[in-house]
Amino acid sequence: MNLDIAVLSGDGIGPEVTKQAIKTLKAVGEVYNHTFTFKEAPVGAIAIDQTGDPLPEKTLQLCLDSDAVLFGAIGHPKYDNDPSAKVRPEQGLLKLRKSLGLFTNIRPIKAFPTLIEKSPLKEERILGTDLTIYRELTGGIYFGEKKLNKEGSVASDLCEYSDYEIERIAHLAFKAARTRRKKLTLVDKANVLETSRLWRKVVTNIGKSYADVELDFLFVDNAAMQMILNPSQFDVILTENMFGDIISDEGSVIGGSIGLLASASVGDENAMFEPIHGSFPQATGKNIANPIASILSAAMLLEHFKLFEEAKAINKAVEKALEMNVVTPDIDADSKKTTSEVGNFIADYIANAE
Amino acid sequence: MNLDIAVLSGDGIGPEVTKQAIKTLKAVGEVYNHTFTFKEAPVGAIAIDQTGDPLPEKTLQLCLDSDAVLFGAIGHPKYDNDPSAKVRPEQGLLKLRKSLGLFTNIRPIKAFPTLIEKSPLKEERILGTDLTIYRELTGGIYFGEKKLNKEGSVASDLCEYSDYEIERIAHLAFKAARTRRKKLTLVDKANVLETSRLWRKVVTNIGKSYADVELDFLFVDNAAMQMILNPSQFDVILTENMFGDIISDEGSVIGGSIGLLASASVGDENAMFEPIHGSFPQATGKNIANPIASILSAAMLLEHFKLFEEAKAINKAVEKALEMNVVTPDIDADSKKTTSEVGNFIADYIANAE
Ligand SMILES: [Mg+2]
Ligand SMILES: [Mg+2]
After folding, report:
1. Is the pLDDT of residue B256 over 90?
2. Same domain, A113 and A81
């Protein structure tokens, strides 16, 4: 298979970890006779520094022309902590998701037995957790009209949803539930918000076409509690953009390591794969960042193109690395392995597995 | 000091637990030579039964004329389970908060050493946690304009904040930080939301007048993670209404028992103190309800009037009760101690501490 992959490694540790994902994909390409072509383009703070735009037109065009996007991370304190900054790294990611029509973010959260001792939750709470969050990604308050009066004293953000935006992700979430434990939980705040009441109405209607899937509802503040008290109760969680941001990030830490978590963002025409961790500016250039989440996002990319055996080869190599303790210090503080050494081990393991 | 305290003990277990808080305050008054005057008035279901109104005019007037309100709990199944009920107990609480101008909700979260085994978090995570959340209570998206188009296909909610709404709660939060560990964390989403950027700008400016308080910033999705990973890092958390709802409910479960959590709701002129648990109708009149949250809300009342030593005496007595296992069955299923016995122990400990 030929795949043109746009590489947007971004800021902070993004480039370091993405490099290991590319290395891994190249090893897969060698072994399984695929031609993966990588073309890089700037995004985020580095793109602002270079062009003034967090998502330059050339970067967007490359993504549109590619089969998939391999994304690193964006964000830099010099923009994040400056309330007067008019151009922000995150605008690049938000615009990219919107331009590529990536309306669904998928985040699997699983309690890996080998990592349970690293979980902040007690073993009996986290044991058996295996859930997936479907977060709406291109609507809601993050994209609604923003206003600031000219005195700079009154600000507002509009949260808006249409039935169409809810329907398309709801279908994906119900379909996913069908292949899993057949349970879908809609997280909202329907006792207070009009948009949440629309979500509840639309999802309830769509649920009638998925009668084999059990549908229930949870207010977001209660969901934030349940994610700690009893995360194994969840199968598929469906929610709007901002609630999904909060709940999925909360969920990301219960398994024990954020450095292992990958995600997919999909739309009708495009797909992007990225680690869920951020740009982690403090670690930049130190060769200590965990590349496994980025490498696993490359595995999700392969799965997206139905290269299941190839994806499995990556997953197996990652498991081997964990098993042999070839890990960065975030997984084992005593480990002296660097970002590139972990990447090398995984790529070599794939290359020499035959 | 003379304090006129309006007692609105409400429904369910409200009267039982509030009685113990009053007993405790009386003991404090004896020891420290303060005159606390208590005047009771009905609110909630019991007020509906008596007058048809969940917040009778006389009750509201008593609150307005008092220095503080000690609140129990409201809610009764005969109204809660009747969808056709036009008058509901909760309306009394909402109207009361609004009439008293209570724009700040304060929620302390503390890890009591004896309860750590009940926490869903591992001991090393929860140990040393002692934080307090300042949540804006009368603005933001819960109160913004709500719209639904006439086809019922597009809904919206507006989140709006003015500098004034932010300033008044920010001053309270900074002042609180001064009496604590001198650290304030603003939780927002300033990388995306205009309202959050206004929060950050206003709070940064006000912070200049509190140079002894360290101010930092955390995005709400990260805050949802940090509350699990490392809650002891926080001293005072300041945040807007909806983020505060989610983060404070998330935080409420990490300590191991909701039966110990008190809260305050304060405005420029009035202040109200209440346990965060509800009216728990099933336990009503059985003398088994945990009075500690209500007793700790009385300690918050004392702190509000800068009676720090007195508040500390209550906190110390509560810790002693926990340490000696003088607790209701929700804390220890084998305990045979009643609501009033726990209250007696705490009041006696204060009275005899000298
Ligand atoms: Mg996030
Ligand atoms: Mg809540």
Report:
1. no
2. no
Nearest CB neighbour to B228, from listed A192, A193, A254: A254
A155 and A167, same domain (yes or no): yes
Beta-carbon separation of A221 and B142 below 8 A: no
Tokens 């450095």 belong to which residue? A259
Does A351 share its domain with A256? no
Domain range spanning residue A178?
A: 103-266
Same domain, B163 and B294: no
The partner residues of A10 in beta bridges, in order of sequence, read: A73
Looking at the structure, tell me whether residues A260 and A280 fall in a common domain: no
Are B138 and B71 part of one and the same domain? no
Please report which confidence band the pLDDT of residue B81 belongs to, taking 50, 70 and 90 as the band edges: confident
Question: Per-residue confidence at A354, pLDDT binned at 50, 70, 90?
Answer: low
The share of chain A scoring above pLDDT 90, in percent, equals 80
B219–chain A nearest CA distance, Å:
9
A339: closest CA of chain B, how far (Å): 23
Of B154, B195, B246, the CB nearest to A157: B195
Q: Which of A62, A73, A72 is nearest to A21 (CA)?
A: A72
Contact predicate B150/B219, CB 8 Å: no
The token pair that represents A41 in the structure block:
């383009």
DSSP helix/strand/coil, B220: helix
The count of domains in chain A is 2
CA pair distance B246, B236, nearest whole angstrom: 16
The predicted structure's pLDDT at residue B264: 98
The predicted structure's pLDDT at residue B285: 94
* pLDDT at residue B354 tops 60: no
Cβ distance A158 to B158 less than 8 Å, yes or no, reads yes
Ligand in closest contact with the CA of B191: 1
Residues A27 and A154 in one domain: no
For tokens 């469906």, the residue is A238
